[in-house]
Structures are given as structure tokens and as C-alpha cells.
Amino acid sequence: MAPETTASTALFTDHYELTMLGSALADDTGSRPCVFEVFARRLPSGRRYGVVAGTGRLLDAIADFRFGDAELAQLESTAVVDADTLAWLADYSFSGEIDGYPEGELFFPGSPVLTVRGTFADAVVLETLALSILNHDSAIASAAARMAGAANGRPIIEMGGRRTHEAAAVAAARASYLAGFATTSNLEAGRRYGIPTRGTVAHAFMLLHDSEEQAFRAQVEKMGTDTTLLVDTYDITAGIETAVRVAGPELGAIRIDSGDVGVLARKAREQLDSLGARDTRIVVSGDLDEHAIAALRAEPVDAYGVGTSVVTGSGAPTAGMVYKLVEVDGRPVAKRSTHKESRGGHKRVLRRHKPTGTALEEFVYPAGTDPERGEHDVEPQIPLARAGVPVDGLPSLDDGRARLRRALVSLPWEGLKLSPGDPAVPTVFG
Amino acid sequence: MAPETTASTALFTDHYELTMLGSALADDTGSRPCVFEVFARRLPSGRRYGVVAGTGRLLDAIADFRFGDAELAQLESTAVVDADTLAWLADYSFSGEIDGYPEGELFFPGSPVLTVRGTFADAVVLETLALSILNHDSAIASAAARMAGAANGRPIIEMGGRRTHEAAAVAAARASYLAGFATTSNLEAGRRYGIPTRGTVAHAFMLLHDSEEQAFRAQVEKMGTDTTLLVDTYDITAGIETAVRVAGPELGAIRIDSGDVGVLARKAREQLDSLGARDTRIVVSGDLDEHAIAALRAEPVDAYGVGTSVVTGSGAPTAGMVYKLVEVDGRPVAKRSTHKESRGGHKRVLRRHKPTGTALEEFVYPAGTDPERGEHDVEPQIPLARAGVPVDGLPSLDDGRARLRRALVSLPWEGLKLSPGDPAVPTVFG
């Protein structure tokens, strides 16, 4: 079996892209200048906004989208394409232009979150890679932003890596952090993206020891008193009593991972206070989603651990984005047969705002036209790559975090509600 | 930014596993012999069976679970663990024993799909990696098996890579193939696992050309008449007429990707037959799931393309498996505080069957006891690794496909229904 990892991203691609390419090279249509747009036809049911994530990962992945010996040998041995196409792929590196919404920007139905310009051949091969990354990462960020909003400033640790593919876990940690989570449990996300990682012990550590007290002693001995003791292995009240006895009132935190965490947090706070551990924080985890977090807002909870719900997009595990050819040789093109048609033509966007800064609409208009611009209108798209090379000074992950905080403040207040509703601002096609 | 790929899987790990490890090494509990079990407390709501997938990937990933210089440097610079623990990790390779359900085997609530024996230190660090792989791959295979059943022998091509993380896409193609899909669009799945890949063109190829006819001609010129022409870009009836005119009645297939595909398939069949293209197959795609596939059973459809629904587990994107410490030094252990408790002790399984071969129950019993065995009872668990090394002759992916076909035949008939219901056989704890 071939190794699981490869430096090239070129085969994260659907077979049909290369067969299309082969045919288009053969009849010379492959050299036609084209515009492809990535957009979501709709938000997941009831969601009021989406959050763009993955753009940074995508630009890295495009740089690694090269067909080396291993990739070419595979395509040759399975006869996916012919010799002419193989020769073209051997020399391929993307040389077109990319514009798009920076990470942390909001998107709405029809927002062109990515615009790829280049020859058909150059741009068509990136379809699957672009969609995989943007659909996954944006789905996670869109869910995570609702959770961060519900947490209302209390920190959330992302701990869902075990509930999703091992590599998706790393990207999910990144997208959650972008969307306002404080930390992650995922060590590879720490290595790859510099995201702060956190963790202390699981129930296995408690059960390994002959008693809860011995487990707490071992942990405090090693990690100091500013650690988080897991108090719900046996009896929570007894666990908290033992925890404070072992660590003293300077104990950093306790974690409750099961049961009705709201009730338990209240009782725990009273007990901790009565034991003099007034600064000991309470961390809760266990099947929390944005609604559970919101329901805990009035409870004395200091931090949340969130797993399954965030890495699976809280009911919407993919963002539903598509990569559509909208322009060939300067003329708009669009599928016409059914309800799935899209609007042809290269588009640009203005997000219109009231003078107060509140967003009014997502105005999507044909590139080359010049709509009236209000003083408070902004263009969400920024240049991402020119002549195939990422532009200088692209926003960092921390820039994305800051951008999202600002963007959420700009939404009409009902746009931040967790309940099902319409998109926070309408998309208007000019 | 560090590269996206790494040969080591060691940091696909939650922070707390290494901090637990550090504490357990310090107080010598880390050397205690332990048994960890992986199981799902329940199936996704209404599902009647689960399908184990990922075991093969997991064994490969465990072989690559080594802490090299890059991993150690990261742990040191972020102070996740101390020098003693780093030294231990530098020498680490798993040296314990693993038994488990082979890929393609069914599982039910409480089925111990994986049993890991070793010292606490040896086994605890594998938790996240094992769960990520098994939870993801089993979720996909469990959904895909229902789709393959609904397709009732008609081939399904997996084409959902663009709707999930780019690396998850490869694993999803593998899990779908294991569960009975015929092919995949994902080229990396072809390279890595030898899964047959398929694809022809997207709507972009149609729109690139000045007319539908020119696009069809270009495709037939390059790929021959035994190709699949996409006929729903403009008007489907006109598209089919043009397709047969260009390719002749020996045209391999047409694909319809939108609209009411049942009605459209029936009309297309009539039209193809009237044009003499009686052997031209009809491929349908576009937001199909197991229910849509089942609804098309009476229609003249020859193959299905399935994307989003399979890579997202059709509503259940994770299998909900947990990795629990169940035995320390030969004594059973279990969390006790709440509803989440698990059954302590190392367990074995007999799947009991009627003389007819129909499965009766999943009988889970304490290892070391010797329950009465019927002639038709089988043990789902097989040895997977001894002294850390995969055993010889482990089942292949094709073996897993065959195993699943046999296993599904063994279910009581109501176990194969798509409608929500109870698990197909009860789990009985002995």
C-alpha cells in the first residue's frame, strides 16, 4: 500500500477534471480565458450567515498542486489521460489570478467567495481541491462562530478531533480558532498553525489509579495546582471535596463532562466557594452545541469544551459551495435546463452598510459595471493570487479572527439569533 | 507555516493524552497493564446496523505513530510535556496487542469493535488516532451500505470528495468502496487503494464550447463513443437527440444531474430506445441519498452518482465511538457517576445465529469466561496486532467488501429496512 501522505495535492482531484482537460487540450478550447466562481446557492437551513474559512489552506494547497513522478505514473498506469495531457500536467502550475473573500469574512447565498481566472485548462483542475477545502473549513467556521457567539466571551476549547477524520481534525481546529474558539486539544493544529493547545486528563487517568485521591495527587504533583481536575468519575460532590483537599483552594479548575452540566455547575460553584476555592474555574464539556452553550449562559461556567458538534458543523457538515464556470472569452455562460442554474458572468460585490455600520445587503453586480457606491459600502473580495503566486501580505489567521469579530458586529441584531431564520442580509443581484 | 503533510501520525493526538502520560510515567502507574475498548454506545438515530471501516487505515497509522525530531521539538517548545516524557516518546512505538472487528463487519450498540491491550502508557496515546479513523470511516461505510442496498445491484460511483476535507475525501472513497460502491471519482483513492476511478465531464466542459454539439463531438473524439455524455446543460430532450446523433446508437451512457431524475430517466429511456440506442445506459446524480436511490428502484436507471450524502454519513457524520479504559491490572474499571457509565472489564463477543444463518444477537461477555457456544455462533473479533506488529494475512479491502455482503445477508429481513427502527439484533451482555 502506498503511504498515506504525499507532498503533492494534485490527486485530491476528481477524475472528470482531467478527462475534461484532455478533451479541451485536444480541441484547443483549453486555452480559452475563463472565469470560475465559488459560491453557495443557499445557507444551511435556518442559518443566518456563513463564515469563510480555508482560503489560507487553499493557497498553500494550490502551490503544492504539482504533478510529480508518482502522480503521473498513477495517471498513466490507469489510463486516466493520454500522453499529451500527461506532458501538459507535468509542466502544470497554476498561473492565473484568484480573488476572494478573506478568511473570517461573512458570506450569504450567492456571495462569490472565490473567483478564479485563467485558461480553462489552468483553472478547471482546481475545482475539487478548492471545494473540498472551502466547503469543509467554512462549514466548521460557520458552526463555530455561532458557538463562540453563544459563549458570549467565555472561552471554548475545541476537542472534537476524535469525531472526524484525523486530517480534517487539524483543519477543524484551525477553522474553530478562526471563528473565535480560544484553544484546541489537537496537537498537530498547534504545530501547523500555532494554535494554543490545552488538555489535562481523561477519565482513563482517573480509573487507572487506585482512588480518585491518588489520581488527583499524581496530577497535581506533575502539573501543579493550576490544573483542571476531572471531578465526575465517581461522585461529583465527593470529587470536588477531594480535589480542593488535594490541590488547595488555589486549584485552577474543575471539569464536569457528564450529567446536567448547568445544575451541576451551580452546585459545584456553591461547593467550591464554600471550600474557599473562589477562583477555581468550572469547565464543562460533553455533547455541547450552540444551543446548549446558550442555555448555560446564566450558569457559573467559566469555559466550555466542544467536540462532536463543531467538527461536524452542527448539523451542516458541508457548506454547499460549488465551483462554476461563469465566463468564457468574456461572454457569460450558465447552465439553463433546470432549477439549478446559476447566474453567468464574472461578478463583483459590494456589501452595503447604513451610516451606523449595520450591513444592509450583499450587492452582487457584473464585473465591468460601476454601481453607485455609498460611503459605507465595502468590497469583501481581495486579491489572493496574481500570475499564480499568492499576493504579498495576505491576512493571517489572527487577522481572520479580528475580521470576523468586526463583521459580526456589523450584522443587524436578528442576524445573530441562533433560531432558524432568513439570511441576515439579502443578496441582491445588480 | 509548516507543511501540511507529515509522515508521522503522532500529533493527530489530543493534548491531554500526553499530559496524562506524563503524570502516569511519573507515578509509575503508566506501566500498569490495561485494556481499552472502542465501542459505540448507540447507533445513529433509527439506524439498524453499523459497518466497521478504518481498521486497515488505523493499523498503518499506528505503524507511523512515532515521535520524530519535528514532533518532539513541537512538544518541547510548547511545554506540553517534560523532558522525561519527551525521552519516553522518542523511543515509543506501540508494542501491545490489538484485536478487533475486521472491516466490513457489522457492529451494534456496545460491540467492542477494537480492543487494545498494553501498558497504560503504550495504549493511552492511541486514543485520538484510533477514534478519528474509526469514527470517520465507519460513519461513511454505515451510510454507504444503506445506499448500496437501496441500489439493489446497480453500480454507484462515489463523487463526494468536493463536499468534505480533501484528505477525508480519500478515506470516504475507500469506506464507500468497502461498503459496496463500484467506483469513485477521487484520483488519490485510486492511487492509494487501487479503487477504480471514473469520470468524464462536468457542465463546465459543456459551457466552455460554443454549442452542446461541439462539446459532445470533442468528448467523443477524445474518449470514444463508449463515454458518458452530460445531457442536461440546456434542454434534455434536445441534448439526448444531439448525443445520439454525434456518438451514434453505440453511445455508452448519458448522465442527468438535475431535475426530477426519475421522470427524466423514464423519458430518456423511451427517447434513447426510439433512437435505437437501446444499450445506452442512464446515469443519474444530483443530491441522491439512500431514500432517493430507493425511490428510483423502479425507474430505468443504470447507475447512480452519489456525493454529499455519502461523505457526510447521510445525517450521521460520525459513528460515536469511544475509547474506554475497561481493565487495569486485571480488574474491571468503569466510570460510575452518571448515565454515561460503561461496562468495565475486557470483553469478548459471540454473534449468535439461527441454524438458517440469521443473526439472533450480539452476545458480549467477560473475557476469561466460557459461554456455551452454538454451532452457528461466530466471533467477530480477530487478532489485528501482536507485540505491536500487524498479524500476517490481514483481510484486504476486497475481503471487507465480501464480508459485508455476507453479513448483510445474515441480518433479519427488517434489519435491512431504510426506515428508522431498532438495531437489527439486540446486544446482550453476559
Automatic annotation (TrEMBL), chains A, B:
It is an enzyme of class 6 (ligase). Residues 11-135 form the Nicotinate phosphoribosyltransferase N-terminal domain. Residues 140-309 form the Quinolinate phosphoribosyl transferase C-terminal domain. Keywords: Glycosyltransferase, Ligase, Phosphoprotein, Pyridine nucleotide biosynthesis, Transferase. The keyword Phosphoprotein applies. GO terms for molecular function: nicotinamide phosphoribosyltransferase activity; nicotinate phosphoribosyltransferase activity; nicotinate-nucleotide diphosphorylase (carboxylating) activity. Pathway: Cofactor biosynthesis; NAD(+) biosynthesis; nicotinate D-ribonucleotide from nicotinate: step 1/1. GO terms for cellular component: cytosol. Transmembrane segments: none annotated. It holds the Pfam family NAPRTase_N. SUPFAM superfamilies: Nicotinate/Quinolinate PRTase C-terminal domain-like (SSF51690), Nicotinate/Quinolinate PRTase N-terminal domain-like (SSF54675). Transiently phosphorylated on a His residue during the reaction cycle. Phosphorylation strongly increases the affinity for substrates and increases the rate of nicotinate D-ribonucleotide production. Dephosphorylation regenerates the low-affinity form of the enzyme, leading to product release. One of its GO terms (biological process) is NAD+ biosynthetic process via the salvage pathway. Its EC number is 6.3.4.21. It catalyses: 5-phospho-alpha-D-ribose 1-diphosphate + nicotinate + ATP + H2O = nicotinate beta-D-ribonucleotide + ADP + phosphate + diphosphate. Gene3D superfamilies: Aldolase class I, nicotinate phosphoribosyltransferase. Catalyzes the first step in the biosynthesis of NAD from nicotinic acid, the ATP-dependent synthesis of beta-nicotinate D-ribonucleotide from nicotinate and 5-phospho-D-ribose 1-phosphate. Belongs to the NAPRTase family. NCBIfam families: NAPRTase_put, PRK09243.1-5, PRK12484.1. This is Nicotinate phosphoribosyltransferase. It comes from Amycolatopsis antarctica.
